Amino acid sequence: MNIVILAAGMGKRMHSALPKVLHPLAGKPLLSHVIDTARTLSPTRLVVVIGHGGDAVRAAVGAPDVQFALQEQQLGTGHALAQALPLLDPSVPTLVLYGDVPLTRASTLRRLTDAAGENAYGILTVTLDDPTGYGRIVRGATGEVVRIVEQKDADDDERLIDEINTGIVVTPTAPLAGWLDALKNDNAQGEYYLTDVVESAIAAGHAVVTAQPDAEWETLGVNSKQQLAVLERVYQRNAADTLLAGGVTLADPARFDLRGSISCGRDVFIDVNCVFEGTVTIGDNVHIGPNCVIRDAEIGAGTRVDAYTHIESASVGAKAVLGPYARLRPGAKLADEVHVGNFVEVKNANIGLGSKANHLSYVGDADIGAGVNIGAGTITCNYDGANKHRTVIEDHVFVGSDTQLVAPVRVGRGVTIAAGTTVWKDVPADTLALNEKTQIAKTGYVRPVKKKS
Ligand code: UD1
Ligand code: CA
């Protein structure tokens, strides 16, 4: 089967510099949703018709299995399909999709292509309470499809028809060139309508079949930010339902956002307003508090992630405790039972079994062993203004509060670092590290007072 995705339209009503089909839904361009669905049907040719913002579209979705056909002027859906014709295999049918209709299920498309077989013309239709704006399916005395009439060309009786053309069709390919050639633009919009092809197909003796989707939202297109917002909620509700069906507890399925993929173990709890991006894997019995943003992460079984924690490109072991307000940046690797508390930032660092950094610290470019306690206000000074350097802290070190570790530096096993120490050279194992400082008690000091004006 050939698949052609029409995506040349401008999307004026989006009021945006970004081509319409590149607006994200669930974090991914509309057109990418359509391409990904198309791929599941294993097409022999996959062609995207581009026009407005064509270079940006090409750059965003270009892939070895995708070919592009340029429609320089948007003269209608029939004209758009004609641009793709030279790239199609005439011996197999062609399925036409729209780049701005992102949520059609593969099963629905298969139902349509199965119904049409090799030789029939198939139309995906749906019956709407309010069909305004859509092309109407005109049927004859025995219920056979006779033609499709656009809203702007329909008479009063035709406008009462509530079965509409979703735009998704499948057609035999060999005769298509002749049918598209014969299209005329003597209609209300002065366009070459793909919908007029159905009459040529009938005249040429092809059967016309229709199929319907399971859900109306599968056929909804995006022409405005309002419609984009509606489909975003449909997508998110579906994603939430999938998790619920798999046994995840969501505090509120209406306040859950997935922009990528997530897999959860048993007895996972996710509180409100969390956003999951990229690829996220969550183990059994994980509890995620409200307002967390988690991207490309693995979280081990029994870990608790408290409110407002941000995790990006990081992994967390089992039975760890994060947050509230913790931040794991790329390359953070936390072993089991690690605690990372409020206002602690971890970047490109390994933290060993059971180690804790509970308050107000920066741990960057570091290797921290097991059983280490990082006191409040500890900073790894990893950057000398030009290069990054590593801090190594071996097992069972106690780092006193307000310590600066000037990298590169190594702190040996079992070391105790006194509060307020600047560690600028390596510390041998099992020693106490401190900076000599004196505390002075000055008498007779008078605190300044505010001048009276
Ligand atoms: C089309 C159908 C209408 C159907 C409706 C469903 C025709 C003539 N009408 O109308 O029966 O009910 O979709 O949403 O087909 N496009 C191009 N090049 C063009 C024109 C359009 O690539 O020259 C693309 C658009 O980017 C879009 C799709 O084709 O992805 C549909 O175009 P649009 O203008 O939205 O068609 P409608 O007038 O809504
Ligand atoms: Ca449309």
Structure characterization notes:
By secondary structure, the chain is an alpha/beta fold. It has 3 domains: 2-219, Spore Coat Polysaccharide Biosynthesis Protein SpsA, Chain A (Alpha-Beta Complex), CATH 3.90.550.10; 246-328, Hexapeptide repeat proteins (UDP N-Acetylglucosamine Acyltransferase, domain 1, 3 Solenoid); 334-453, Hexapeptide repeat proteins (UDP N-Acetylglucosamine Acyltransferase, domain 1, 3 Solenoid). It is built from 8 helices and 33 strands. The strands form 5 sheets. The protein has a 19-stranded parallel β-sheet that branches. Strands 5-4-1-6-10-7-11 form a 7-stranded mixed β-sheet, with helices on both faces. It is elongated. The N and C termini lie far apart (87 Å). The structure holds uridine-diphosphate-N-acetylglucosamine and calcium ion.
Structural class, judged by helices and strands? alpha/beta
Shape: elongated
Helical region count?
A: 8
Considering the protein shown, what is the CATH homologous superfamily of the largest domain?
A: Spore Coat Polysaccharide Biosynthesis Protein SpsA, Chain A
Keywords:
single chain; 453 residues; alpha/beta; Spore Coat Polysaccharide Biosynthesis Protein SpsA, Chain A; UDP N-Acetylglucosamine Acyltransferase, domain 1; 3 domains; 19-stranded parallel sheet; seven-stranded mixed sheet; 8 helices; 17% helix; binds uridine-diphosphate-N-acetylglucosamine; binds calcium ion; GlmU_C_LbH; multifunctional enzyme; magnesium
